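A quick aside before the break. I want you to see a complete sequence-to-structure record at least once, exactly as it would be stored in a machine-readable document. Don't worry about memorizing anything.
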Amino acid sequence: MSDPRLRTLLVAILVAIPGLLWLGACEPDPDNGPSEEPEGVFFDEDLLFEGATDLATEELACVGESDRMLRGMVLAPDGRMALRSPTLLDRLMPTAHAAPLEGELPVAGVVVSLTTVDERGEPAGDPLVETETNAAGLWCVAMPDDVEFGPATMLIARHGEHRLRRPVLHGDDLDIYSQPEALVRLLVEEGLLVTEIDVDSYLNLDVMAQTAVDLLRPQTPRPGAGLDSLLDRLQRAMSEDARLMAAIERLYSPTP
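That is the input. The structure line, written in tokens, reads:
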């Protein structure tokens, strides 16, 4: 489904209609006092349904000047656009190589930056281009012509103290969610220099990491636990996967 307007329209149908019904059915009980927000939440609850009714007519604008457009979605625990059916949405908006974990949901109002990074996956200088996710969690940026695909180029989604990183290894399948961030953390912890991993090797690691946490030992967000808890569990599950760790060992290069 390459047409972003059709993609946005489908998200609007899935989000806006049940959302209006949910809002009417979930009025807070004043006798019970204010509810507590889970610790480590990645989203701003005030943005929950902001602009949902406008998605059908809103065209997702790309920020930047280039013909190489990068598009995707930011998903995280407690995304709170939770009334969509993951199975149905996955059929409507398939990804080429991998998918977020069941329970990770679109997040609105998140800053998404395209940036170059150092050997530890940390930003090296100012962002190349920056935008913000719309009410459906979608974003689009133009990749400068002089920037190359590879682990040294990353997308970083930020909200408050939290962030999610994803290397730009190709122009497809660029949704940003927990598993790619957990893999970056694991590689850095194991002593690999992120910028020295070639694209094919990183893709191979990413596939094994995805399999480790979504097939062999399925991990899902725990209600109220937040993003940090999920990332810790994903990194631990990856570190206990013999295939992935053997592949990392083969790539290991000690720092001079």
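Two observations worth writing down. The mean pLDDT is 77. The two ends are 46 Å apart (CA to CA). We'll return to this after the break.
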